[in-house]
User: What shape does this take?
Amino acid sequence: MSEVFSKTWPIRAIGLVSSVLFFGLGCSVIGGNLVSQDTIAATPAETVAETPSSSPNPANIPSATLPSETILWWHFTTDSTQKLALEMAALKFMEMNPSVTIQISSMERDAYKSRILGALESEDAPDLFQNDGDFAARNFAKSGYLQNISPSMTDAWRSTFVPSVLEPYNLNGRQYGAPCSFSMIGVWYNKAHFLRAGIDTLPTTWSEFLEDVRKLKSAGIVPIALGEGDKWSGALWWEYLALRLGGRAAFEEAVSGTGAFTTNSFVQAGERLTALISAHPFQAGFLNLPTYPDASAEFGNGKTAIHLMGDWESENQKANSSDGKGLGSNLGWFPFPVVENGNGDSKDILGGVTGWLVGKNAPPLTIEFLKFLTSKEIVCRLAVPGSMPAVLDAGDCLGDPFPKSVWETAVQAKYIQTYYDQYLPAAAASATNEAIYGLFAGTISPAQAAQLIDDSFA
Assistant: This one.
């Protein structure tokens, strides 16, 4: 399978953990990439994945001039383009700040998640580390592992970010980090199939969407691709409906315990989803279609008309199609419809955020490095499908028309609802996916699904 991107940050496992120490003597921009002209690589703490030089000090610089302040930087970025961009950012920052050494530890996401808590509890805790603005981030803040960077979050710096994606790194009014990228779920569709079904106006409401599903079925077209075997992709439908019906307030109240997942908006989300399921809009065998890429292939091969998925789908429907071309000019996109009589803001979105948290004992220049990492120059180098830039003036670095149009819609949102399986504790995240799978399978009712999710917080 060609490069396939995840719903948060593109992942391609490398099966290698590296800890490499870099500092730059000079960097230049060549062909749009920062290229180190002369670097020094100290002996790595673990296996070296990429070492600019085999000599500990190839330039023979006197030790008195070597960096005196070290930033320990952890990340789980394994996409080769993004990983190189991060390493070059470190080189550039060290060129601008000769007193700084940046020690990079890069590993695959699962290994990262298994090690980060232990690292934060140790004497060698990372000063800056990657995070999805998730449940773990809130726990780290509550446990005192993070530094409150609010005093450094000036209005000038804050104003550079897409407002909705800055919030996941804020707890009780304290800022503990900043985003670099985000993703958004929307409705991808096949223009040719819509035309054949007589759909000449894109749906903006749930009722209109259901009517279009009926039109597609009447035209002999399978309306929707879904690979419910991995369960998270089906949960996106319910999560978006809950966002449209109850809005931010209902979700935050349910999570905090001042409300509940058994309240009307969550039960009604299940009822709206059940109405869709009862129309039999999905391809045969959707419950057991193993993974998201399988559903993406169904859509990219033109076998279905719609796929609810993230901004990465513009590339993935091509990569997963049998000819590697996908839908071509027949690919279209529109935001998730408004649900009539719902309390949610029509511009709010379901998606994910990736950024950086600052460790409690991080040296002062860590925040300056974070500012550099969240600058347009760097976030544009990290922009790939599934990683839209989190700064407001970076839209012009999205060349493909679809990610840019998605980004232009996403930046209007006042609130981004983080995927439940990232935002919620592990038990609740699993319960959500299982409960919604039950709705698709027809084994539980909307009220029972809501109760199962609510019970997982007990």
